[in-house]
Design brief:
Blueprint lengths: L1 H19 L8 E6 L4 E7 L4 E7 L10 H18 L6 E3 L8 H11 L5
Parallel strand pairs: 1-4
Antiparallel strand pairs: 1-2, 2-3
């Protein structure tokens, strides 16, 4: 029951956040989702409803690395991926999660690659 309430509260926070955020083709919304094992990230143009780029750590061979370091690696890799599309500015959607740990590591890695939020 406690896990259900925790998930429900996160979804409520995410819905409140999504009412305020929207992505465009110039500044897409970067949606961050984390599970217990993996991280999933998408750059979404909300005007057309299309995903511009996505990345995950599911098929990566990242063993013996902690989850925050995996987030840093994915953040740098994703920043390079969207920079190739000509995107320099994004709207970061943290998915209702607190801005610390894996979320912060991912965002800091993207900022270090000159992506503006």
């Amino acid at each position: 029951m406690a896990n259900y309430n925790r998930k429900l509260n996160r979804v409520k926070r995410h819905n409140k956040l999504r009412n305020k955020l929207s992505g465009t083709s110039v500044a897409p919304r970067v949606s961050f989702f984390k599970s217990n094992k993996h991280i999933f990230v998408q750059a979404i143009d909300d005007v057309t409803g299309k995903t511009l780029a996505s990345i995950t750590d599911v098929n990566k061979s990242l063993t013996n690395i902690n989850k925050s370091d995996i987030s840093k690696n994915l953040g740098a890799e994703f920043a390079k991926k969207i920079a190739q599309l000509g995107i320099k500015k994004i709207v970061f959607d943290r998915g209702g999660y607190k801005y610390h740990g894996r979320v912060k590591a991912f965002a800091d890695a993207m900022r270090s690659q000159n992506i503006e939020f």
